[in-house]
Amino acid sequence: MTHYNYLRKLIPCFCLLGSSLFAGNMGVVNFATCISESKLGKAEQASFENLKKQLGTHLESTEKELNELASKLNDSEYMDSLSPEAEAELKDKVRTLNEELMRYQNQYYQVLNQTNMKVVQQISAAIAAASEGVAKNKKLDLILNQEACFYASSTLNVTDDVIKEMDVRYDEKTKEAPQAGK
What is the pLDDT of residues 13-61, one digit of tens each? Predict the structure, then answer.
């Protein structure tokens, strides 16, 4: 993106920010705190960790098998006891397992990155919706992500209110989910 396009996109934000500053009707929300403290954020983190463990188990077993075979390759007495065909077979199996391990690692990181992106998008949407509710209740014109500010007075922080709103919405959604399956 060129500097011109970047500035062109920021000008409306600065205008809105300037008008809100004079009006005093704005708040800031700490995105990271919303993730770590809200029910949705905690549930998504637990789900993500579970996925990580599941995928990691297969990766670890393949890595363990590869290490066992590699130790045999490094054992000169064991290697001397093998026929040339068995040695070639062992080396081929190590090469194949190594390729599989690299493929699994790539898939592991790809799945984790995709899942993380989906989680962040879902939580961002929940924070935006909760922020809208808080803004209406508190009659705020603007709520910014605290990370977008160089400084914000603690009196502008509405993170706790946003988390409460997120939790209410999460509870409503989880109550509806079992009923929808009936």
Answer: 554 455 444 446 899 999 999 999 999 999 999 999 999 998 888 889 9
Which of 51, 73, 70, 74 has the alpha carbon at shortest distance from 62?
A: 70
Sequence-ordered list of residues with C-beta below 8 angstroms from that of 131, at least 6 positions apart, any chain:
27, 29, 143, 158, 162, 165
161: exposed, middle or buried (Cβ count in 10 Å: 0-12, 13-18, 19+): buried
pLDDT at position 9 over 80 = no
DSSP structure string for 54-113: HHHHHHHHHHHHHHHHHHHHH-HHHHHHS-HHHHHHHHHHHHHHHHHHHHHHHHHHHHHH
Q: Are 40 and 123 in contact (CB under 8 A)?
A: yes
